[in-house]
Design a protein that fits this description.
single chain; about 15% strand; 3-stranded antiparallel beta sheet; 11 helices; 7-stranded mixed beta sheet; alpha+beta
Length: about 400
Amino acid sequence: SPETTPPTTQRPKPAPSPSPRPRPAKRTGRIRRPKKGSLRDILRQNAGTSLFLRPIGWTDLHASLLGVRFCELPVCDTPRPCTLPGSPPTQGHMRPSCTITKLSDALTEILLPSSALPKPTSTAVKAVLTTLWPAAFAKPQLFPELNLYYGDKVYFDAVRVQALWNFPPNPSALSSQSSVATIATRPAESYGSSLSTPHSTANLPMLCYIGKNQLASIRQNIFRVAIGPDNNPNIPVQRLQQLRGKRLLPANADQDPHFVGIFLAMAQRHFYNAPAQLFARETYWPPRKNESRRPDFQDVKMRILSHDTETCEFLVYTGYVTAKFLDRFYDPSSAPCDEDGKIAGMKIELTRVPIWPILGLRERLGKALGDDIVGSFDPEYMETWEDD
């Protein structure tokens, strides 16, 4: 009966707790499709090709895909001493001054077959330029290393050259040799910016030097081969790496794609504030979140000096790096176009300058470098250095 039923010993069941509210799904950012012709699109279209490399590994394919145009200008071979039959020799030829002797020794060092050694050649080039234009080339940087910026990454020491000169901080102090301190820019709307202010080049890259022999030497030894068993050379792997090095050689030695990377690194230094380098070879840019991201890109013009030991010529490369070309590396998914509707590339002009004779070299090389580098001068009046 109900009176004799023992009380239950089971605990009461707890009331069911309300089910937790489902968390709202995280909104994923819209995936941006790279524009046709952008750097990311180029990498995707050439997925089976090794393209994402430091400039020393760039080939003719890199220059082609980036829209680089090489253009060779007429040889800059005047002025030079009169060599008509019966004309008397110059005083500098009969009794060379200390300056002429110094130039002759330095130029001979540059053209020696052993000029693949970087330090003697760099020192000789520094001696030549400081003798010809002491004010414009007063502060060289030997063996500098330049960073490369791609999207939100900075790659430290991606480009190495033998010598680098910056634009002077105070051009007015150079008087007749003064270099231009600002670069005239196109209208602001061509850059997508609301401002059009001249870009100050003070203390920023102006010209660098790298020898063709030095580039060839680097490519020959770019791939290291580990020693085999019993400290014997690994000949098969060594031959394979030599073949890889040969693939880096340009079809035209005077149109080296490595120069494209050098011009790019020099131009980027004009606009990027390099973060403090850590132990890593790369890091994110910018280092601070509250820092304005997009630099105020503008067109810049710089030079690379090289030489040809076979033809005894200086090679002056003038690179025109536009703001839109720099934008392609700032935003690898974009493909800004130039005035002709083509994706922005780079134009590189080559001017050959005969090294001999010494008389007239200052004027010949000065015309090839330009007034914005060496300042204003009379290109037809030869400096003889007779009164030394």
